[in-house]
Design a protein that fits this description.
290 residues, mainly alpha
């Protein structure tokens, strides 16, 4: 039996191909001559987008950590490192209490002897610094609560209330001195107290701020801010007294400085309450650290 040679062999048939309709009339398929651009290493827009994504991811991660009742320091520090910094915070707080008590006594003495509103403001701020350091001591008294967000926020709320009450006393005393035109007196004792208090308070502020950044503690940073205000007020006593010595007509500078410092403390205290009261409510379920 013979096969018909004209029958095509299906086994050797070529594979079907898909023809582009645009190529049927001898035209070539159009090619994309403008491929999508990719951000290069030097493209500032792509770098800005990358930075924004990293910042947003960092903020989301911090919020997730806080929602679990922990501070961000719990993800940064090892347990032994956290305890080491906690002990340093306690030592600094004790040192701050001893130093500021001595400065408060000296400043109250200057305020009474020299009729200085700035000295009274500094003395009251020194008392505030003692109270804030005591709050920080409570904050870190429990070793198991070093990363507790709830304990941190409670400390900040108490600090905010103390700031507001203290600012009212400072502003009230300064306004009273301005209304009665109480003239400050200048003396060597005033200069000595001003320089010493300014230097010591600024040193304490720097140390507290560094510890607060490491422990991500708003309470420590607030305590550092209070010490910084005390240092500024210490130098402001010196400046206002020196100005009054050479220009007696500018007698109101001392009282205006007291009002300004009081308003700054008031604004910080209000801001602290606005930020921290909602967070205390959010983390009230995480009280098992006690």
């Amino acid at each position: 039996m013979t096969t018909d040679s004209s029958t095509p062999d299906l086994s050797t048939a070529p594979n079907p191909t898909i023809v582009d309709p645009a190529a049927q009339n001898g035209q070539c398929a159009p090619t994309d001559q403008h491929p999508p651009k990719r951000g290069t290493q030097g493209d500032p827009f792509s770098m800005d987008r990358d930075q924004e994504m990293k910042i947003s991811e960092s903020i989301q991660f911090s919020d997730e950590v806080e929602n679990r009742g922990l501070l961000e320091s719990s993800t940064r520090l090892k347990p032994h490192e956290a305890q080491s910094y906690r002990k340093k915070a306690l030592w600094v707080s004790w040192a701050s209490i001893l130093v500021t008590i001595a400065l408060a006594v000296a400043a109250f003495t200057v305020s009474i002897m020299r009729h200085s509103a700035s000295a009274f403001g500094f003395a009251f701020d020194a008392v505030l610094d003692v109270l804030s350091s005591i709050i920080v001591l409570w904050r870190y008294s429990n070793a198991a609560a070093v990363h507790s967000a709830h304990r941190e926020y409670i400390a900040c709320v108490v600090l905010g209330v103390v700031f507001i009450l203290s600012s009212m006393c400072i502003v009230g005393k300064a306004i009273h001195d301005l209304a009665t035109k109480l003239l400050p007196e200048v003396g060597d004792f005033l200069f000595s107290v001003s320089i010493l208090s300014g230097i010591l308070c600024i040193i304490l502020a720097v140390v507290k701020f560094m510890l607060g950044r490491v422990l991500t503690s708003r309470a420590l940073i607030t305590d550092a801010f209070n010490s910084l205000v005390g240092g500024i007020m210490g130098f402001s006593i010196l400046i206002s007294a020196e100005v009054f010595k050479h220009h007696p007509t500018v007698w109101y500078l001392d009282g205006m400085t007291g009002v300004l410092i009081g308003l700054i403390i008031l604004a910080y205290g209000v801001k602290l309450l606005i930020d921290m009261v909602p967070r205390v409510r959010q983390t009230h379920n995480y009280e098992t650290f006690e």
